[in-house]
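Is this the right way to post structure tokens for a design question? Let me know if I should format differently. Anyway, here goes:
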């Protein structure tokens, strides 16, 4: 038997619907007729009360305007006018305070209000500041008279701010109390209240129920009277009606308990509830029998949904039935397997995409670093070329004068050693100037010649063979045979390798291992690596080692031009000079050079 068939059997056997429908229909008709009759009467009372509220407020505002209009405003100063304002303040009982303001809303004179704190609705300095904040000064300056939004004072009394324009520079702010309106509302039968735009209580009960607040807000928004059933603050049901107070954005509501008006309908409701309870008892018995076949499958489905949401795709729903629930369980298991497959595909794709992004990012950063380093070296090279040019001539003259002085004084002269040292230092400076000039040559004007890259490598090794043995440095060569030739100047490449060997020797003062490798890269480029087991290069220095005059050697061991010149030579050969190092783990310099183009053969 399918789930749908069991559901129809359940509805047919209970018999709740006929009993509930007949009883509720009788109760609703009777109650609706009573509600319409009493509601119309409530609406009439609320409308009349709303008109009374509007007249009361209008009379208070008109009285204030007439009282102030009789004063000789042009002849009175601010202080005199503030003193004269005590007259309308005494004459109009609804006034709680009167203040003379400027166009900017600031006080021009001492305000008038009762300072007796013993009175229930006494006006204090806090209330004065509230009046100044709520007074509609700007609107009154435009229209002449304006009412502000009601607000609660420090004593809990609802106050209504009013503003009048006296002349071009002065305005009058007054506070009207709603005590008289509250007194009149308290005389109405049942309960009555005055509410603001948001349904807040202004007069009457201190607090309205949520239903009464919604009723008042609906009336203010639609500006039409409304009658409906509401919940009183004590939880009982009341029949309430509310009417708008003109265009003031207020609503007056009246309400009375619904129990008395709906007494006949309540008896019908009680009968309906009794028979409905009997029907529900029968329904509970049948529902208990029906739930045996429904609760377990639903529980299995719920657990499967929870496991799927947590990412546990291996849990399946076990429902052994041939009805719609069994079909739903099978469909859910298929959906779970499909989601697991797609999730794995997405994860694999995300991992591959992340690897691609990381690789491209690293390549982009390397290219940016190369561009910045090239620009920096070019600028420093131009500066070095200028300095070398300016120093070369005077340095040549100094060397010549020192040599001439040595020749004139002879080798036995007391100044011979001093002049010898001076000449050596001058030659050292000349060498530095020469290095600067070489560093300034960023590109070669000729293409060079083809040569095997192993040739300058071996030449540099032969040059430093004695020093390597003296420092107890073991050299391991891994030069691959059959690689293509390079294009350029082999002597300059030998100079680059020599600089790298010199740095490796300096990095291993106690001996170590030096590895030199030569391989090709995809047949289109040559890769030469020089690795040492020395102290390594700190990360903060790795970006600066190719800068001119940057050196970590002590004293006069170097001037910091070796790697700068090597970098320029490699770039002049359209290659790259890279470094990879970790503190304490040695350093590896990699030279990447394009392979020479294959020679053309004519047949």
């Amino acid at each position: 038997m399918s789930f749908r068939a069991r559901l129809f059997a359940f509805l047919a056997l209970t018999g709740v619907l006929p009993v509930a429908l007949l009883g509720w229909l009788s109760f609703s008709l009777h109650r609706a007729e009573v509600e319409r009759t009493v509601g119309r009467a409530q609406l009439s009372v609320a409308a009349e009360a709303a008109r009374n509220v509007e007249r009361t407020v209008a009379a208070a505002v008109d009285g204030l305007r007439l009282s102030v209009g009789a004063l000789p405003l042009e002849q009175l100063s601010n202080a005199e006018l503030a003193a004269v304002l005590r007259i309308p303040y005494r004459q109009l009982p609804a006034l709680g305070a009167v203040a003379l303001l400027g166009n900017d809303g600031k006080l021009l004179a001492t305000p008038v209000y009762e300072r007796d704190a013993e009175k229930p609705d006494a006006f204090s300095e806090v209330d004065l500041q509230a009046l100044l904040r709520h007074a509609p000064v700007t609107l009154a300056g435009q229209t002449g008279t304006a009412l502000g939004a009601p607000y609660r004072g420090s004593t809990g009394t609802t106050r209504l701010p009013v503003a009048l324009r006296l002349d071009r520079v002065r305005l009058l702010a007054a506070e009207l109390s709603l005590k008289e309106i509250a007194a009149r509302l308290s005389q109405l039968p049942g309960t009555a209240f005055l509410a603001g735009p948001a349904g807040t209580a202004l007069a009457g009960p201190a607090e309205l129920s949520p239903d009464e607040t919604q009723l008042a807000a609906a009336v203010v928004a639609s500006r039409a009277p409304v009658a409906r059933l509401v919940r009183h603050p004590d939880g009982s049901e009341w029949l309430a009606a509310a009417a708008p107070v003109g265009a003031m954005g207020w609503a007056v509501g009246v309400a009375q308990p619904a129990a008395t008006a709906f007494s006949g309908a309540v008896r019908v409701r009680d009968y309906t509830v009794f028979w409905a309870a009997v029907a529900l008892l029968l329904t509970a018995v049948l529902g208990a029998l029906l739930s045996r076949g429904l609760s377990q499958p639903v529980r299995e489905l719920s657990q499967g949904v929870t496991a799927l949401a947590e990412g546990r795709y291996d849990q399946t729903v076990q429902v052994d039935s041939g009805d719609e629930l069994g079909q739903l369980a099978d469909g859910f298991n298929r959906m779970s397997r499909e989601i697991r497959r797609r999730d794995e595909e997405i994860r694999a794709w995300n991992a591959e995409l992340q690897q691609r992004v990381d690789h491209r990012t690293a390549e982009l950063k390397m290219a940016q670093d190369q561009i910045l380093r090239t620009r920096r070296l070019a600028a420093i090279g131009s500066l070095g070329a200028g300095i070398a040019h300016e120093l070369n001539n005077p340095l040549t003259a100094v060397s010549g004068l020192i040599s001439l002085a040595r020749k004139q004084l002879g080798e036995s002269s007391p100044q011979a050693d001093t002049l010898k040292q001076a000449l050596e230092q001058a030659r050292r400076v000349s060498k530095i100037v020469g290095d600067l000039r070489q560093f300034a040559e960023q590109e070669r004007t000729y293409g060079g010649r083809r040569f095997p890259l192993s040739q300058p490598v071996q030449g540099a090794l032969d040059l430093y063979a004695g020093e390597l043995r003296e420092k107890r440095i073991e050299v391991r060569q891994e030069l691959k045979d059959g690689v293509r030739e390079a294009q350029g100047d082999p002597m300059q490449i030998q100079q680059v390798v020599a600089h790298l060997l010199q740095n490796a020797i300096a990095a291993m003062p106690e001996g170590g291992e030096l590895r030199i490798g030569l391989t090709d890269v995809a047949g289109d480029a040559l890769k030469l690596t020089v690795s040492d087991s020395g102290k390594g290069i700190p990360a903060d220095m790795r970006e600066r080692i190719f800068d001119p005059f940057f050196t970590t050697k002590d004293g006069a061991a170097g001037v910091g031009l070796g790697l700068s010149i090597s970098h320029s030579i490699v770039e002049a050969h359209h290659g790259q000079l890279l470094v990879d190092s970790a503190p304490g783990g040695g350093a590896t310099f990699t030279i990447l050079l394009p392979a020479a183009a294959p020679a053309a053969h004519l047949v």
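Format looks fine. Someone answered above. Worth noting: The chain is about 55% helix and 20% strand. The radius of gyration is 51 Å.
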